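Field: COMPLEX_INPUT
Field: COMPONENT_COUNT = two
Field: RESIDUE_TOTAL = 873
Field: MODE = joint
Values follow.
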Amino acid sequence: MATLTDPPQPSFHFSQLIYDTRYRSLTIQVVAFILIMWGLFELVTNAIQNLSALGKDFDFGFLGNRAGYDINQRLIEYSNDSTHGRAAFVGILNTLLVAFLGCVFATILGVIAGVLRLSKNWIVGRLMTVYVEGFRNIPLLLWIIVIFAVMTEGMPQPRDFRGEDAEASMILGQSVAVTNRGVYIPNVVFTRSLGGNEMSEAADGVPAAVIPAVSFGDWALFLVALIGGIVVSGIIGRWGKAKQEATGIRPPGLFWMRAASVVLPAALVLIALGVTLDYPELRGFNFTGGVHLRNSLIALWFALSLYTGAFIAEIVRAGIMSVSKGQTEASSALGMRASWTMNLVVLPQAMRVIIPPLISQYLNLTKNSSLALAVGYMDVRSTLGGITINQTGRELEGMLLLGAFYLATSLIISAVMNVYNNSVKLKER
Amino acid sequence: MSELHSETALDTAYVRTEMLPEQTPPVTVSGPIKWARENLFSSVWNALMTIISIYVIYVVLVAILPWMLNGIWDAGSLNECREIRDARGGSGEHGHDVACWAVLVDRWDQLMFGFYPSDLYWRPILALALFLTAIAPVLYDSLPRKMLILTALMPFLCFWLLWGGSIWTPIVVALGFVLGWAVVKFGEGTLGSMLATIGAILVPILFWMYLTGPLISGLHSILPIGIQAVESRAFGGFLLAFVIGASGIILSMPLGVILALGRQSDLFIINKCSVIFIEVIRGVPLIVWLFTAQLLLGYFLPPGSNFDLMVRVIIMVTLFSSAYIAEVIRGGLAALPRGQYEGADSLGLNYWQSMQLIILPQALKISIPGIVSSFIGLFKDTVLVVFIGLFDPIGFSNAIRADTDWNGIYWELFIFIGLCFFICCFGMSRYSQYLERKLATDHR
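Field: COMPLEX_OUTPUT
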């Protein structure tokens, strides 16, 4: 009778660390860990040596010092007496502004182009293909520069707006002026503002921040009303759904109730604050009043949106094509209308495919906004990572903070994306 | 009976006894008209869209075509262009109504080669020809496999052609790879695969760190063969874009595979380090990394050491691109059914064998579109080097405009640069689609 058990392994040989798969992974990890730590140690000691050789220290105190430079496009109050920290914050807001505007515009463009590319209309489909391929295969930097050149070279000068038979005229009912110095649009002004109604004018004569400090309270109130309205709308929607599930009848006018709950409070707040529009006006050699959107912002915004829109178009197309035709046919067989088929069957399934790459495109757009450098838009790279570094000589600290800002932004967005992905993941075995 | 028959024949005299020739279908349901009805005018909405599209195309073509086709190719400056245009007559009052392509002729050398010495232009051209010949067998497997030897030699030859200098530099560097290969080949039997792999990594690195320098200078003093050396600063225009793009693509692929395997690995430390590396690199824009390379790399190197800005850029672009490629390949690895991994294990293959023979060929095939779009992104991103003071095509377009001869010329340069990038990137994406079709094994 043979015994089938292995002979006992009496002792541990040193060679098992290499040849035994049970211990080998440990060996590899320890070796890798030592190597990585050694590499990091080398880098840090080198940095310390180099810094001391240059007579520099590692200190973030410069953020509290006076910046001493102007920023021409800003959302909040800032002057050259403000600190480097505030300059960095202005830059961060500018980055987020152009990223937000770009994401909204790119989504609209991308969805339209993606749907039209699937159109049965041959010529429309080809046109959209030209758009998508053209923007995907040419560097974004070139598009930014081209659009900037179109704005500065191709648009009329402010003086062309002068006179009875002016060469150029304002568009959209005399409210928007497109000039080679930028686009002037009406500004929102609160006549019965919570914080008094004096308009702040910065020292450099540039019409001050888009949101002067005095109207922060007004905007906050507006936002609270809007968010409150959206919450109420959500509650009404849930109530309607519960009622429909209980009785089988959808409460009539549900859509209008929800719309009213969003719009009415916000509108009431605006009326109560006495909201009016401050139109741009040609005075002297330039336009005054309104909001001045500089060419740099316009070029960056349009180029980012057109470029990212081309990528989003492909994502949308792929998402719609990923829903098999059988789904549409089955839903028609159940007697659903075309609009219900789209809303209840196709879109929820396409969204699962569309959303993750869409969000990573938003992330790309935010990172690509650092190309602002090409047109002189004052984003966080130009303030914190540009002028501040040049003035204070703190490359190491400045670049670290800049990297940390971008990294934090992308990690937050990816974390949100992961939560979403897990919530819509197909539940399989 | 016969009477009946003849009667029937008489009755049916009007019935044809042979088939009529087929008639062509009505014009409205066949040919171009049918196509147009189905594809352009199937509904009111579609008809409207078609008309709008045609109008848009018309407007664009009317604006651009005469401007492009009547362009002036033979002039020394923008003013000359304008004089020629005015001499032709009928141009209108606006700035310049016809393209002045002469700028491309005038500045062709700069746009293509930058400040590369003009008597040495044959070297980049030869390097490009060599590069194309060498990647051909990789791209198309119908070509003879012997050509792959050329592919292996190509990086060293191209490096030598472009930068010049002693011929011993590329030879000795290549010797390091030969050493690594020899350690694997002959050490596997005696040392075991694990030690041989470690040796294959360590031996060349030690060789490059300590032996390369003396060996090159020694060999060069014995047998000085070499061509004129060219500084990195002389590189510019599309030459620079191609060199950075091609080196980045070639170097980032293996690094990306290693990072992807690291991220999928069960080994805790390796896994976490790969994740941190990939996320940090991907989370920060390339332009910030390029500034890091320009401003900060000096801090982290041993005091007193300094190396070429272009090499720094290539390293940064490679690291950046490899993180993206790693994510694409990780997607491919994750998409493989678990059965493939289990099957490889049950065949008794070790980790590297199973990766090399079973997992990676399939994962890479799935990842082809993503990998190629990363490559396209990398190639497009080479224009960002303009911000750290290297003269890529866009840098040159600014420099040309700064010259009084060509002050005010925009669109011609932009169109030319855009077209060159479009051709390269579109070519790559077409090739990836061809490769996908060729490698497709599922029968859909």
